[in-house]
Amino acid sequence: MPPGLHLVNDWLSPADAQVLAERIDAADWSDQLKRRVQHYGHRYDYGRRGVAAGAPAPPLPGWASDLGGRLHAEGHLGEPPDQVIVNEYRPGQGISAHVDCVPCFGPVVAAVSLLSGCVMEFSEKDGEGREARRLEPRSLCVMTGPSRFAWRHAIPARKTDPGPDGAPARVARGRRISVTLRTVLKT
């Protein structure tokens, strides 16, 4: 596993995950990308690949503050997050390999998966290491250290993923919501 990567299955209870998904879906979604997104705290500018100056985002809703407070209390984050991006992935949608903006965001990136799982692929920026890890529904993925700065992460755009532990059967993807929580670096 990439150094500094922490995966916690069943981080949310089924009931808490359902309530969280309902609260997220009650808010407006942006269709600016191929996938739908919501921005809170600070808006991310995909064209500039940085935090958008002068483009306000809604403040963190209560559910995001609650998640951030729990992440901080459990020691996953050194401080409560002030930036949240919610991504919706339909079967067949993904995200290309990337490292979350290094000059923009702090040393920890945390993501919670809701509704459906997927396989996230990690690759070292120097091309040496490659790993694939399944992110289960209700799981927490925390990237720190090398997994945050020296490894890219991606979700291949496909409708099924390899089965667990090399099983020959593929696993169909459903609708997945990813909640990414970060801190913006102050300049």
Number of individual domains: 1
Uncertain regions spanning at least 5 consecutive residues: none
Question: Which class do the helix and strand fractions yield?
Answer: alpha+beta
Please, what is the oligomeric state?
A: single chain
**Kindly, what is the distance between the CA atoms of the first and last residues, rounded to a whole number of angstroms?**
32 Å
Q: What name does the CATH topology carry?
A: Jelly Rolls
Spatial arrangement of strands, main beta sheet: 1-10-7-14-5-2
Secondary-structure element order, N to C: EHEEEHEEEEEEHEEEE
CATH top level is: Mainly Beta
Total strands: the figure is 14
Shape: globular
CATH architecture field: Sandwich
The number of helical elements comes to 3
What Rg, in angstroms, do the CA atoms define? 16 Å
Determine the fraction of residues in helical runs and give it as a percent range: 10-25%
Largest sheet: 6 strands, antiparallel
Whole-number average pLDDT?
92
What portion of the residues fall into strands of 2 or more residues?
Answer: 25-35%
Structure report:
The structure is a single chain. The protein is an alpha+beta fold. The chain contains 3 helices and 14 strands. It has one domain: Jelly Rolls (Sandwich), CATH 2.60.120. The strands form 4 sheets. The protein has a 6-stranded antiparallel β-sheet. The chain has a 4-stranded antiparallel β-sheet with strand order 6-11-8-9. β8 and β9 (130-135) form a beta hairpin. The longest helix has 12 residues, at 14-25. It starts with a strand and ends in a 5-residue tail after the last strand.
